[in-house]
Amino acid sequence: MTTIRVLIGDDHRIVREGLKQVLADAPEVQVVAEAPDGGQVLAQVEALGGRQGLELVLLDVAMPGLDGIDVLQRLRKAHPDLPVLMLSTYPERQYAVRCIRMGAAGYLHKSADPDDMLAAVRKVAAGGVFVTPATAEALVSAVGRSDARAGPEALSHREHQVYRLLTQGLTVTEIGAQLGLAPNTVSTYRARILEKTGTKNDVELAIYAERHARPAAL
Asked: I need a labelling partner for 66 at 20 to 30 A (CA). Which of 72, 77, 132, 159 fits?
C-alpha cells in the first residue's frame, strides 16, 4: 500500500486536529506536517522537498498573511507536480471555479462528509481531480456565462480578495492593513469591483455577494 503523505494548511488548530482525525481512518494516509498560515505552508513544502516528500497539500482558502489562493499560485509555479486540494467554508459558487482554474486539483467544503474527504484525498493524490456535484455545477455555469458581470469569478485575484473582505464588512483601512495595501489602492480596487459587478455601493455589493453565494435555481 502506497503511503499518501499530506501537509495540512489551516489557521485553526481545531480544524487541523479534526482533519487529522478524519485522515487517521485511512491507514495509507500520513499527515507529515501542518501549518497555521500561508508562509509556513510554503516553508514546510520546501523543507520536505516538494513532491519528493509529499503526495498532497490540503489547503484552506482563508488564512492570515498569504491566503490559500496566494499559496496555491506560488505552489503551482514552484512545484507544479504537487497536487493541492483546497478546503473552505465558502460555497463552491464563490471559490471552486477560481481555484480549479488556478491549478487546484479539487475543492471541498469543510462540512463535507468524512468519506468524501477521504475519497478526495485518495483521488487527488493519485493524480486525479476531485469535483463535487456542486463544483461541477459551478464550473458548467461559469463556462456558459458570457456576461463579464455575471459572477465574482470575473474579478482578478486581488480584486477578489478585496471583494471578499468588503462583503465581510471590513473598512478600506482594515482591508489595507490585512492585505498590506495603501487605503487609496484598496479604494481603487473597490471602484473596479463595483464597476465589474454592476453595483453602486457596499450594501448593493453585499446583496450581490449573497445572491452569488446561493445555488442557482433549478
From this structure: 132
